[in-house]
Amino acid sequence: MTHDFPPVEGGGSLILAWQIRNKRVLVVGGGEVAAGRILNVLNADAKVTVVSPREGLNPEVAYRIEQKQVDYHDRKFETADLDNVDMVLTAIDDPEASTRIWKLCKERKVAANIADVPPECDFYFGSVHRDGPLQIMVSTNGNGPKLASMVRKQIASGLPPNIGDAVKKVGALRKKLRKVAPEPEEGPKRMQWMSKVCEQWSLQELTDLSDKDMEILLGFYAPNEIPSSEVVRMQSRPDWAFDGSFGWSV
Ligand SMILES: C[C@@]1(CC(=O)O)C2=NC(=C\c3[nH]c(c(CCC(=O)O)c3CC(=O)O)Cc3[nH]c(c(CC(=O)O)c3CCC(=O)O)/C=C3\N/C(=C\2)[C@@H](CCC(=O)O)[C@]3(C)CC(=O)O)/[C@H]1CCC(=O)O
Ligand SMILES: NC(=O)c1ccc[n+]([C@@H]2O[C@H](COP(=O)([O-])OP(=O)(O)OC[C@H]3O[C@@H](n4cnc5c(N)ncnc54)[C@H](O)[C@@H]3O)[C@@H](O)[C@H]2O)c1
Questions:
Q1: Which residues form the Siroheme synthase central domain (predicted)?
Q2: Tell me, which fold does domain 126-159 have in CATH?
């Protein structure tokens, strides 16, 4: 039987957006690598505990402790540190301790990343570009971390400068749309209308959406129409200087 389903291409990672907000992450170690890990999980709103002797602390880690951005224990790792944690990240210069912590994590079924020991990682970090709600992660699956960083920079340099703001506005519009049309049976219409707005409006037009513009735009949801941004602005800002180029697109 012939078909054109995508072929399976094993050997990759499952790239997900882990919702670690308000969950507890244990970071063992306080060097440069730990500093990067800490920032990654703080950016995802996790609650972070750092365990590391004070004398080995990197200035950035010391700063986060001093600012109370993380909880801190001035000592080496102890088994009880694993109580009630959702994720463990180690970045220590002691391979034996690393492997011991990894084994304890596996006994307890806690997800862990052991820096420097890829086989002892439930997940790898990747090179991440961030612009507001937009995150782009590049992984080379352990082949070349430096290359991951270079690819990430190249991708970022080709992005429109306002893409993060456009994503933010679309997020706000989708939230309002769900209030206008909350019923589950509206799902297909809601999704189709939202997709068309994203396709037919430019990133700049999306970025420029005000709350009032969104209200007017949402008025076109019931009749299932996609007005041009000029039409919306004419209604929401009557004093707006119109350049004469408006039109309808449905
Ligand atoms: C992406 C990034 C994210 C982050 O760490 O946040 C990250 N490493 C970064 C940088 C980096 N790391 C290293 C160098 C030196 C140059 C080089 O080796 O290339 C540079 C370059 C630099 O510092 O610029 C050394 C290194 N890394 C690993 C080992 C162990 C090994 O390979 O055995 C060794 C020692 C090798 C040795 O001893 O020779 C292992 C891992 N590093 C990963 C992620 C995971 C795979 C990601 C992937 O394959 O895509 C994985 C498997 C596990 C993990 O760490 O989760 C971050 C870039 C952030 C950014 O700048 O955007
Ligand atoms: N992305 C990566 O995977 C990557 C990149 C570069 C380096 N590394 C490796 O990651 C590890 C950490 O790198 P670094 O530059 O941050 O090292 P570092 O030497 O600057 O820091 C190690 C830290 O671990 C602390 N520490 C040591 N034993 C401890 C224990 N038992 N409990 C708690 N804290 C302990 C030290 O006090 C220090 O703060 C090294 O093994 C390094 O080779 C990994």
A1: 131-157
A2: Double Stranded RNA Binding Domain (3.30.160)
CA 35 – ligand 2 centroid, Å: 10
Options 1.25.40, 1.10.3280, 1.10.443, 1.20.1260; CATH for 163-236 is: 1.10.3280
Which atom of ligand 1 sits closest to the CA of residue 138? 50
Say what the ipTM of the complex is: 0.95
Q: Give me the tens of pLDDT residue by residue for the chain, a chain 250 residues long.
A: 778 999 999 999 999 999 999 999 999 999 999 999 999 999 999 999 999 999 999 999 999 999 999 999 999 999 999 999 999 999 999 999 999 999 999 999 999 999 989 999 999 999 999 999 999 999 999 999 999 999 999 999 999 999 999 999 999 999 999 999 999 999 999 999 999 999 999 999 999 999 999 999 999 999 999 999 999 999 998 776 665 555 444 4
**Using CA atoms, how far apart are residues 97 and 81, in angstroms rounded to an integer?**
14
CA of 167 to the centre of ligand 1 (A): 29
- pTM, entire model: 0.92
The fourth-level CATH superfamily of domain 24-125 is NAD(P)-binding Rossmann-like Domain (3.40.50.720)
Task: Assess whether 211 carries a catalytic annotation.
Answer: no
